[in-house]
């Protein structure tokens, strides 16, 4: 899988002769491969350089681009310079949202071209996932659902958050995940009021909520899900908060579709929590795009004025966080369509009591 042709087709729209891609995420999107290399995509071809660690895999896996190996005397920039001169390429876009100031200075000094900021070119393409990308993300999400089912049989009083997090990583990897999408979050009891709590030595016990946020990567693409479960019988307040969060998530999912502004999806969920009396305790956005990176754009957030495109893959993750007491978050992953969305997370969402 690669997206070289899609990138090339966008170059005239941006007035570019070529696009310089140097970030791991950009490289993965363009080539379906990551080898710590440098890629130049022009209107009628592409050239990729990598070193001896990756050259055999690159030659086997990459299609649609010339693949060359770097040496100590003929590195990335030397080969890029030769390619630009050979093809007569002058106006070259670069990943302005990814490249450091020092890297830009080095490229500008070494390459015989004008470097034009063009992060939007890649961002717009990556915002809408094609069917092949969606299929990979469905598989990643299937693995995540399977890992959740397994972890329910593992959790018991006396375990620490750290032990549960480690087991989640194991369950994801043994089922086919290539790596985790991010370090898992496991937050028990009072730690649940911290949306991005770091798993520690908190021991889980009866009467606690346990929030678990985790995912894996398959062929470079992420999954993401959160479930909050009760260990032992929850209090009435805990049940009420859980019900409010679940209602908010369903409201946001019902509002999610291609062509709707991100803030509208967020507001559908946020309104539900305000009406339930928990609006002040929902402290983040309803959802974010994900794909090669766990956080991409556009988002289902209060500040998102742009329209969510058909094919966007976004999280649906409202939460309520009562400081020092407990928290609840429920997260699924949605693929947006013209008429609504498809929820590709299959794990149950009604409150699970272990």
Helix and strand pattern: HEHEEHEHEHEHHHEEEEEEHHEEEEEEE
Query: How would you classify the helix and strand content by structural class?
Result: alpha+beta
| Rg, alpha carbons | 23 Å
Largest sheet features: 6 strands, mixed
Side-by-side strand order of the widest sheet: 4-3-2-1-5-6
Number of strands: 19
Instruction: Based on the coordinates given, report the CATH architecture of the largest domain.
Output: Alpha-Beta Complex
Span between termini? 42 Å
The first-level CATH class of the largest domain is given as: Alpha Beta
CATH topology (level 3) name of the largest domain: Creatine Amidinohydrolase
Poorly predicted sequence stretches spanning 5 or more consecutive residues: none
Overall mean pLDDT stands at 97
Count helical runs: 10
Shape: elongated
Q: Count up the domains.
A: 2
CATH level-four homologous superfamily name of the largest domain = Creatinase/methionine aminopeptidase superfamily
Strand content: 15-25%
Task: Give the % helix.
Answer: 25-40%
Task: Jot down its keywords.
354 residues; Creatine Amidinohydrolase; alpha+beta; 2 domains; three-stranded antiparallel sheet
Short description:
Helices cover 36% and strands 23% of the residues. The chain is elongated, with a radius of gyration of 23 Å.
Structure explained in plain terms:
Strands 4-3-2-1-5-6 form a six-stranded mixed beta sheet, with helices on both faces. Strands 7-10-11 form a three-stranded antiparallel beta sheet. The chain has two domains: 4-126, 3-Layer(aba) Sandwich (Creatine Amidinohydrolase, Chain A, domain 1); 131-343, Creatine Amidinohydrolase (Alpha-Beta Complex), CATH 3.90.230. With 354 residues, the protein is an alpha+beta fold. Strand 18 and strand 19 (341-343) form a beta hairpin. The protein is built from ten helices and 19 strands.
